Amino acid sequence: GVLEIMNLTAEERDAYEGRIKFLSIEASALHKQRTDGIAEGKVEARYEMAIKMIHENISDDLILKITNLTQSELDEAKSLLTEHS
User: Fold this and answer.
1) Three-state secondary structure call for residue 56
2) Crossing angle between the packed helical segments 71-83 and 10-55, to the nearest 10 degrees
3) Which is nearest to 52 in space by CA: 78, 85, 71, 83?
4) Burial class (CB in 10 A: 0-12, 13-18, 19+), 50
5) What is the mean pLDDT of each run of 10 residues along the chain (85 residues)?
6) Angle 24-3-16 (CA atoms, 0-180°, nearest 5)?
7) Radius of gyration (Cα) for the chain, nearest Å?
8) Does the predicted model carry a pTM greater than 0.85?
9) C-alpha–C-alpha distance, residues 17 and 29, integer Å
10) What does residue 7 show for φ and ψ, rounded to 5 degrees?
11) What is the pLDDT of residues 38-59, one digit of tens each?
C-alpha cells in the first residue's frame, strides 16, 4: 500500500513510478485500439447494410438516410460490388 511505497528508496520509487507510467500508457493504447476497432466495425456494418439494400434495388436516397453513409461512401460500396461481380 501507500506506506510500502513511502518506505521505498528513491531509486525503487523511481522504478515503481516508471512502471506505473508504463502501465498507464499501455492501458491508454489498448483503450484506443478497442475504441478504433469498435468504430471500424460500425462503419463496416453500415457498408454491409448498404450493399444489402443495393441488392434489393432500394433508392440511393433511402440508403443514405438509413445508413448515414455519404454519397461518396455509397458510390464506393457500389464500385466494390461491380468489381466483385
Assistant:
1) coil
2) 70
3) 78
4) buried
5) 83 92 92 91 92 94 95 90 74
6) 30
7) 25
8) no
9) 18
10) -85, 0
11) 989 998 999 999 999 999 999 9
